[in-house]
Amino acid sequence: MANPSSDRPRPAKGKSRPQHKGSAKPRFKPNSKQTPRKPFKKRQESRPSQPRQPSEKLIEERPDLVYGRHSVEAAIANQRPINRLWVNSRLTFDPRFRPMILDAKANGAVIDEVTTQRLNQLTQGANHQGIVAQIASHDYVELPDLVTTAKAACRHPVIVAADSITDPHNLGAIIRTAEALGAQGVVIPQRRAVGITPTVAKVAAGALETLPVARVINLGRALEQLKEAGFWVYGTAAEAGQPVHKTQFDRPIVLAIGAEGSGLSLSIQNLCDGLVSIPLTGKTPSLNASVAAGMVMYEIYRQRWLEKLPTINLGGDQNHAV
After folding, report:
1. Residue ranges covered by each domain of the chain
2. Is 10 exposed, middle or buried (0-12, 13-18, 19+ CB in 10 A)?
């Protein structure tokens, strides 16, 4: 029996096969009143956006960089070996800094005129003031050499001991104040404390070029050595201790400054010959470490200055300075 479908004519090549009624759904016409059904999408639960956590990997400062106009100028003036000097175009042709740049170039430094973005990258966004210098890392002095130099400088030298200062801005401010008020040196510990970083050098504003810094393994042992060398150790305290203006600093002094917040450690307090405090009248319970250090150092300077004034006899047993 023949297949009836074989007798039907096949559609020509390229033409679509006719569809029977009801065999398929009619195509959607744009002018029709029907609207196409939107594809189904799985509803996703909205989650609150969480802020991006900062990276735990901290970028350490390069100890071979010094930035800031005062710091770099002091390094060049004291003939520190400078390998490279990055400077922006504004300072390159500034008549105030042109001689300084030429001196660095004459001493063998490579001068690179770079953009501000490059300077920001080198200093990790710090206030570089348009100039960055690459120098040898800071040379710490040995404690016995610091004692010898301090005693040779004056009869009653002053050495500042920083106990676990972790903020480079505080350490830089302490070094700057110590040099400005005539101290003979600074002692810092190696552990749990900041060293001489570019930020410290920047805040010190050139004081590191003339003020020696000794970095010791054990600050307590260093204080014992200083006491054996004839120094009296005075520590700062927020509440306990004698008011600073009632303390006589008429001998070689080591001024111990406590860390931010916690103050002097108990072991360092036990080594002190006396504790001094700054009387406060406001509601603020304590002062910043660098501010407290500056106030005590100024009192020491004030007493030394009064000792140099000539005295006159006004009669009786008392002499008065003029």
Report:
1. 65-135, 143-307
2. exposed
Phi/psi at 305 (5° precision): -70, -40
Rounded to whole angstroms, the Cα distance separating 156 from 130 reads 40
Asked if CATH classification 3.30.1330.30 holds for the domain at 65-135, the reply, yes or no, is: yes
Greater confidence (23 vs 159) lies with 159
- φ/ψ (deg, to 5) at 44: -100, 135
The amino acid that residue 254 corresponds to is V
Q: How many CB atoms lie within 10 A of CB 163?
A: 26
Average the pLDDT over each of 97-111, 132-146, 286-300 and give the range with the smallest value: 97-111
Q: Is the dihedral of CA 137, 142, 147, 153 positive or negative?
A: negative
- In 3D, which of 61, 303, 64, 71 has the Cα closest to residue 175? 71
DSSP tag of 134: E
Longest Cα–Cα distance of the chain, Å, equals: 156
What's the confidence (pLDDT) of residue 209? 85
Give the span between the Cα atoms of 82 and 131, in whole angstroms: 13
The neighbour count for residue 193, using CB atoms within 10 Å, is 16
Is residue 237 exposed (0-12), middle (13-18) or buried (19+ Cβ within 10 Å)? buried
| Secondary structure (3-state) at 248 | coil
- Which residue in the block uniquely carries the two structure tokens 């150092």? 297
Burial class (CB in 10 A: 0-12, 13-18, 19+), 301: middle
pTM for the complete prediction? 0.62
Residue with tokens 């990055």: 86
Q: Around 76, how many Cα atoms within 13 Å sit in the side-chain half-sphere?
A: 27
By C-alpha distance, which of 78, 188, 169 is closest to 126? 169
Fold of 143-307: Alpha/beta knot (3.40.1280)
Identify the sign of the CA torsion 257, 259, 260, 266.
negative
